[in-house]
Design a protein that fits this description.
Two copies of one chain form a homodimer. By secondary structure, chain A is mainly alpha-helical. In chain A, helix 1 packs across helix 2 and helix 7 packs across helix 8. At the A-B interface, helix 5, helix 7, helix 8 and helix 9 of A face helix 5, helix 7, helix 8 and helix 9 of B. Chain B binds a DNA duplex through helix 3.
DNA sequence: CGACTGATGTCAGTTGCTGTCATCACAAGC
DNA sequence: GCTTGTGATGACAGCAACTGACATCAGTCG
């Protein structure tokens, strides 16, 4: 239709993602209809739902790649590393994934923060990552509930660090550096006088 | 007042909550329609949406009470307590809220865990609690990102401890005790050195 | 060339959710 | 006792998200 080659332009999924990001940014998430996204991508509403389970999922496509890299990094951490150290190493390994696309990450994060529905989806994605991290830790011999706690704490660090990083303008901020500082802060906070 | 059989039976909201909990348990969340919930409660679909923003919210009514008690407990913690200690005291203070209704908590949690849509709502409620906790900590003079980290870590402890507690049969398990153990585990995990 | 496969289009239908107006019990004032 | 609110509810129309079923067409393989 548009180009002139085959019946189907390539990369339908990518076009849908791009169209959605644009429209969500221009008119807002709720004011954008799935039919409009599909139309801008040169497709139909039905096809949108063949590529994405629902209207939100179009913003959360790269989840599996992230999960794979995180768990792989946990598995690759030195045997001497403790649970939280392994998680920190995993987050460190994944930092460049976002650093490369700082601007797109910012656009996406701004849209997500503006709508409760999208924040819900973001949170369940993070919870899924935490669950995967906990599984990877258990593979290393970490018991429960230590594995889940280390994973959840690590994801909390990531969440807070990412929000700070994505909120900063410019390209200078280093996500990995922000995450390292957050980890240090977490250790300081939890080091308080416990005393059972 | 109550005796006077008027046009409207009292406690419409409560009847809707009860009907929803029953139907979600009997036929599953997705297989239950809002019209059915309303019909069992002796009301109409339109009235359901006057009491609850959406189909999920009917399971998450008591959120404000929980938030109030948590923030109040943080504010009431002794000045000598560190951030995480204040959060731990707050969770300790709300333990009885669930302990009293162990059976209902179990039913509810089983339904929520079975459906991704409901877990999403659960997670955003927890995130809201974390945000409120962080605010209460800032009121105590805790800076950022320490306040957010302590709050998120505390909520992670609550989440994991609650899952364990709600998964246990019988009435014997003590939620507060489970939470205290989880806090101890968190401190051990974040202490840095790999355990024995 | 012809069958097969996979991505897309078309259409109808269900359901969550909202706006709008009518209805009815109850209470307050005349 | 009658009138006049007031607030909760019912009745109805409508939009948009999502799904199932079937048709269509490009490229591939025999």
């Amino acid at each position: 239709m548009i180009g002139g080659m085959g019946r189907w332009e390539p990369n339908a999924r990518g076009r849908l993602e791009e169209a959605a990001l644009e429209l969500y940014g221009e008119r807002g998430y709720e004011q954008t209809t799935v039919a409009e996204i599909a139309r801008r991508a040169g497709l139909t509403e039905r096809t949108f739902f063949r590529h994405f389970a629902d209207k939100r999922e179009v913003l959360f496509g790269g989840g599996t790649l992230l999960e794979e890299r995180l768990t792989a990094a946990v598995a690759a951490a030195p045997a001497s590393a403790g649970p939280l150290e392994a998680v920190a190493a995993a987050l460190d390994a994944v930092g460049p994934l976002f650093q490369q696309r700082h601007e797109r990450s910012r656009r996406r994060q701004a849209i997500i923060l503006a709508h409760a529905e999208l924040r819900e989806r973001e949170l369940i994605k993070l919870a899924t990552l935490a669950s995967a991290l906990a599984g990877a830790l258990r593979e290393r011999g970490v018991g429960e509930p230590a594995a889940s706690l280390a994973a959840e704490a690590g994801i909390a660090v990531f969440k807070i660090a990412f929000e700070r990083w994505a909120g900063e303008p410019g390209e200078e901020a280093d996500l990995r550096q922000v995450m390292r500082e957050a980890f240090a802060e977490l250790r300081a906070v939890t080091a308080g006088a416990p005393g059972p």
